[in-house]
Automatic annotation (TrEMBL), chain A:
UniProt entry tagged with the keyword DNA repair: no
Family as reported in the entry's similarity comment: Belongs to the binding-protein-dependent transport system permease family. HisMQ subfamily.
Keyword Acetylation tagged: no
Pfam families tied to this protein: BPD_transp_1 (PF00528)
Domain of life of the organism encoding this protein: Bacteria
Database matches in InterPro entries: AA_ABC_transptr_permease_3TM, ArtM/GltK/GlnP/TcyL/YhdX-like, MetI-like, MetI-like_sf
Subcellular location: Cell inner membrane; Cell membrane
Protein name: Polar amino acid transport system permease protein
UniProtKB/TrEMBL annotation, chain B:
Annotated PROSITE patterns: ABC_TM1 (PS50928)
Family statement: Belongs to the binding-protein-dependent transport system permease family. HisMQ subfamily.
Chain ranges passing through the membrane: 15-40, 52-78, 84-104, 147-166, 178-200
Superkingdom per UniProt: Bacteria
Pfam families listed in its UniProt record: BPD_transp_1 (PF00528)
Residue intervals of the ABC transmembrane type-1 domain: 12-204
Compartments (UniProt record): Cell inner membrane; Cell membrane
Protein name: Polar amino acid transport system permease protein
Keyword field: Cell membrane, Membrane, Transmembrane, Transmembrane helix, Transport
Length: 227, 219
């Protein structure tokens, strides 16, 4: 095997790598915020008294969790454009990401809510707390605190999965890499660089989530353990 | 142009078979490699533990798609041309090995320490302890998450389409390119994936519930 590695050819492309990485981060940020919102609403929906709402949320969660993300991207992106809705590619990519991660989030949040002891809720009712108060203070906040580690690792996995949106040419890190390697013919080096960049992003994200967790869950910080 | 016919559906079914073949191949190879990773992660020697931990962190922190590109396009540049099926199987094997190794490490380490101490007192060798004492107990705990992970593998075989391997996703792309009925074609492909994945998901959940019967919380 006589192959000489040449990372030098990639140096001039660093602004593109950087902008790709930033796009990936931006997509992740959007998907985390909206995905969490959908996930929480869906988890509440699955616990609601209405059978229709339960079924609807269950259908959404199971459908998304049991089909590949790539198929979801094609279904939504090509599907929407076939009925005349032409979204900018990045918007479509974030949309698929939100729909995807929302389902996983819903399942995690629901698992957290299921760990809240019924006695807690009954006690809150006895104290005369309103339904929104009960959901926010007694169920949701402790539940989120318990599942926070699972949630954040799901978000890191989603950041990695966002590479799949390169298949509809969303200009994130992987698509950028595909472009650069077709210019430079340095496929091996390009993908090694990108793998390292993804690793860095994953570490960065984990640190950020850890720090954020320390801020929003002061009880965990004080006791050193989760609930 | 034309409608979606039985011929298309049969084509999709055949491609589904290839998805299953790829899944079995990837999961089989990945289990072997994952077992080695598990052994390395629980080894007594410190540097073996460190090296295997770095391996797991690198693979878990890199998108599968990039691993696939490295194996398929990267190795081709170096002069090793792999068929798409093999490249996909190897990438998925690497992916499986890191995740399964880590899942199984957790299961092995959750077997109470006293078990291996007792085995040591009885004069069992390290291998005997692992095979006869630890693994039978760890396997019970490991089954639900392993079945759950199988679903992940099955879904991730869709990425093999990027390397041009004609499995279910690629086949549906091919059909959609000629018919351009994305909702219908990808809907059917999604339904086929669902038909494969959903029973496995249910099985995983049922196994988990069975396992947790002893320490279930009042609901």
């Amino acid at each position: 095997m006589r192959y000489k590695f040449d990372f030098g050819a990639l140096v001039e492309h660093w602004p593109e790598f950087l902008s790709g990485a930033l796009t990936t981060l931006q997509m992740t940020a959007f998907a985390v915020v909206f995905g969490l919102a959908i996930g929480i609403l869906c988890a509440i929906g699955r616990r609601s008294a209405s059978p229709a709402l339960q079924w609807l949320c269950g259908f959404y969660v199971e459908t998304i969790r049991n089909t590949p993300y790539l198929i979801q991207i094609f279904f939504i992106f090509f599907g929407l454009s076939s009925i005349g809705i032409k979204l900018p590619i990045l918007v479509a990519a974030v949309l698929t990401l939100v729909i995807n991660v929302g389902a996983y989030t819903a399942e995690i949040v629901r698992a957290g809510m299921d760990t809240i002891h019924p006695g807690q809720i009954e006690a809150a009712q006895a104290l005369g707390l309103s339904q929104p108060q009960i959901y926010w203070d007694v169920i949701l906040r402790p539940a989120l605190e318990r599942v926070y580690p699972a949630l954040t690792s799901q978000f890191v996995l989603m950041m990695l999965a966002s590479s799949i949106t390169s298949q509809i040419s969303a200009e994130e890190l992987t698509a950028v890499a595909n472009n650069i390697q077709s210019f430079t013919f340095r496929a091996f080096e390009t993908y090694i660089v990108v793998a390292v960049l993804y690793l860095l992003l994953a570490v960065l994200l984990k640190l950020a989530f850890y720090g954020f967790g320390q801020i929003i869950f002061p009880r965990r910080r004080r006791l050193g353990t989760a609930l | 142009m034309g409608g979606f016919t039985l011929v298309h559906f049969v084509y999709l079914l055949q491609a589904t078979l290839w998805t299953v073949v790829l899944t079995v191949l990837a999961f089989g190879l990945g289990s072997l490699a994952g077992f080695v990773v598990m052994l390395a992660r629980t080894a007594r020697t410190r540097w073996i533990r460190a090296v295997s931990m770095i391996y797991v962190d690198i693979i878990q922190g890199t998108p599968l798609l990039i691993v696939l590109f490295l194996i398929y396009f990267g190795l081709a540049v170096v002069g090793i041309e792999l068929p798409a099926l093999l490249a996909a199987a190897i990438s998925l094997m690497i992916y499986c090995s890191a995740f399964l190794g880590e899942i199984w490490r957790g299961c092995v380490q959750s077997v109470p320490r006293t078990q291996s101490e007792a085995a040591e007192c009885l004069g069992l060798t390290r291998w005997q302890t692992l095979v006869d004492v630890i693994l039978p107990q760890a396997m019970r705990i490991a089954t639900p998450p392993t079945v759950g992970f199988l679903v992940q593998v099955l879904k991730n075989t869709s990425l093999a389409s990027v390397a041009g391997f004609v499995e279910l996703t690629r086949a549906s792309q091919v059909i959609n390119n000629s018919l351009f009925q994305p909702f219908l074609v990808f809907g059917i492909a999604g339904a086929l994936y669902f038909a494969l994945c959903y029973p496995l998901s249910r099985l995983s959940r049922a196994l988990e519930r069975k396992l947790n019967v002893g320490r279930r919380q009042p609901a």
